[in-house]
Amino acid sequence: MGGGRVAHPVLKGPSVVKELVIGAVLGLAAGGLWKMHHWNEQRKTRAFYDLLEKGEISVVVEEE
Question: Which chain regions cross the lipid bilayer (predicted)?
Answer without folding.
Answer: 20-36
